[in-house]
Amino acid sequence: MALSTLRFSTFNVANQVFFQSSSRLSFALVNLKPIVPGHVLVVPTRVVPRLRDLTPDEVSDLFQSVHQISRVIESEYRAQALNIALQDGPMAGQSVPHVHVHIIPRRAKDFEPLDEMYNALDAKNLSQDFAEAYAARPLRAERKAFEAEQRERQRGNVESPFAGIEDRERRPRSGDEMRIEAERLSSLFPEENRGVQPQRAREGSL
């Protein structure tokens, strides 16, 4: 799939993508509101809500990608450990109906107590974060599609179990900030696995 068409749920995230698997079954993106620097998401290219909805090949590719990316993230951010988390369904804290794996670098005393990180993760509402970021952009086709879906949800025509707790403490990053990080991380991977590169950013993504 072309970089310009990669989506996280309904959102075009081309400018945030720093990795694509060789098979193109998975990709990784930098986070709009990271819990800590280096907090990234690894996502199957096909948009499905639950891990059980993926094919065996997609599952294998997703976690091989997590393995490959986690080594780079740990080194690049000088982490002492990693949290690797998948919230599989809304009752597990999933706030966007698209399977995604969090890779979160950890260092001593970054959270006190250590498991406070899980409360921070549970408090994230990625769907709302992305919606707010899109609302700040000029109206484009992606935003129109999202707003149409939201209207249907308000009418009760589309079930929406993804109602987490809004996180008001972290500032959403700008598209330029995320693109710069994506370009830097992309350069750390083999050429066939790279995501966004200078001059390749596409209009329509954050």
From TrEMBL:
Domain HIT residues, every copy: 4-113
Superkingdom of source: Eukaryota
A Pfam family assignment: HIT
GO molecular function ontology, one term from the record: nucleotide binding
Coiled coil: none
CDD domains: FHIT (cd01275)
InterPro entries found in the cross-reference section: Bis(5'-adenosyl)-TPase_reg, FHIT, Histidine_triad_CS, Histidine_triad_HIT, HIT-like, HIT-like_sf
Active site per UniProt: 100
Region feature (Disordered): 146-206
Bias (Basic and acidic residues) ranges: 146-156, 165-184
Motif (Histidine triad motif): 98-102
Residues binding substrate: 31, 87, 93-96, 102
Site residues (Important for induction of apoptosis), renumbered to this chain: 118
Keywords: Hydrolase, Nucleotide-binding
Entry keyword annotation includes Nucleotide-binding: yes
SUPFAM superfamilies: HIT-like
Entries under PANTHER family matching the protein: BIS(5'-ADENOSYL)-TRIPHOSPHATASE
UniProt name for this protein: HIT domain-containing protein
Organism of derivation: Rhodotorula mucilaginosa (Yeast)
